[in-house]
Amino acid sequence: MALFALIVIVLAVGLMVISKGRGHIVAASDHVIELDLNAVTEPVSPRLSGVNVTVWDGGLARAARVDQLAAAGMRTLRYPGGSMSDAYHWADNQVEGRSHHEPSPTTVFANLNEALGGTAYVTVNYGSGTAEEAAAWVAWANGATDSQQPIGVDVRGTDWKTVGDWARLRAAAPLATDDGRNFLRAGHPEPYRWRYFEVGNEIYGSWAHDRHGQAGSGLPGQALHPRSYARNAARFIERMKAVDPEIRVGVISYHGEPYDKRDADDRCLAVCDSESAVVDANGRAREGWNPIVLHTLSELGRRPDFLVMHVYPQLPGREDDAYLLSSAPQLKAHAAELRRQIADWWQGTEGERIEIALTEYNSVTGGPGKQSVSIVNALFYADSFGQLMSSEVDAAHWWLLTASIDIGGHNPSRLHGTRDYGSYAWLSDGATVKGRAAPPADAPFPTYQVARQLAEFHATGVQLLSVQTNVPDLSVYATRDVGGTVRLLVINKSAYQQRMPEIRLTGGGGGAYSLSVSHYGLAQEASGQGAVSRDEGTRGERFEFAFEPYSVNLLRLRAVSAN
Question: Which element (helix H / strand E) includes 28?
Fold first, then answer.
């Protein structure tokens, strides 16, 4: 045994001595991160950096909102907000069933988005509105003040006047004595030029507000039905594009339902409805929301400009930290599957022209608990963004910028975190809920702190670089900006293990690199502060670096001139 131990020691020392020739100690089993500085794969879509803002957020008009969004690198905003979109009548600034007007009407959103220099995604009211109501919203945002083009009379008998009527209302200054329409007077003669509109929100779900076919609604068709939705959506597309042919209009897809509901032997794998089946271009019978919607639109000759996808990996009460931290690749997989489905109905360039927009994503479908406001959700956000950069997704919006706390969520001790409430939001709204005080207004949760940290990672004009790793629990992504700075995003998803891989750079010509680091981890979560930065001096093409448990790390590398 003594001889065997001596042999082991000699071998170990030999490995160490060999490795010191490269300036560090490397064991035979070392893990590595390999980054090719010349392997640019694709540009990063600027519309991936998005967030939902809402008509009920009373703080949207404050100047601080622009600064908060800009600091997080947000360049696309979705409005007016989730399922409420199908109950919100923009021209009255009122939600069905509520007696009050909402604090952030369309003028507030329009001015916020313009001040940010953002791209607007607007969800029009499908569930209780009409195609002409949606077209009038396009006219208000994008119309010319001298246009005499009529919008038309809707199925309820409402005359929505002309494009110019709404454009002139947008251009007008608020009256000294409000006639009830000042919330539409923006003093903005030039069009806002909104480009992206989606028809309704999650109309496939029982929770959606859809009055089609209900007595007294005046809306044709059947509520929550894919064929009815597609037929009505086709009219929305027609009427909205008649006002502005340059806009892009998207329709709802449903990723939570199996597309292949039957196996090769025609055995049902889910809730099958053969009476509603449609046949794709390959002769395969398809059942469910997506195939019926896509088939119907194809028959009507109304190709949508994009499909809307919402992804929340967990169900309420079933939150699990390890599961959430393994879920980010689902976003990419769902988008790839949706792309495959598009090809069944629009092949070739026609299908390729249809974009995919992830207009909502977060950790859990409802009742967010403490996981949602812990660093675990922030790690999920960072990992999700990395996955989206190389996916079929063209635009993405986190749900949500500002909201109240939720005190009825899932808060077991096995989940990380010390709070006994949850929230979808990046920023607290400061409201007290059932006697429970929230953090002060605008106090950031970890998800926002990480969004701020990543702002430079996906800045305008960055390109994605190819990076590989074999390190357990690490997700690694890389970008290069127009000035040549390379940023390596490393997410350690282990709750307890520090990881210290060797980072190997290739394609850089063998020179030295200045290194600085932005770090957000458990200490920052506990203190409530944002990411901390430090200068790490100069490194060569190979160096080791330690990544703490539960942390998001942004390494900045820039070649140092030989002179």
Answer: none
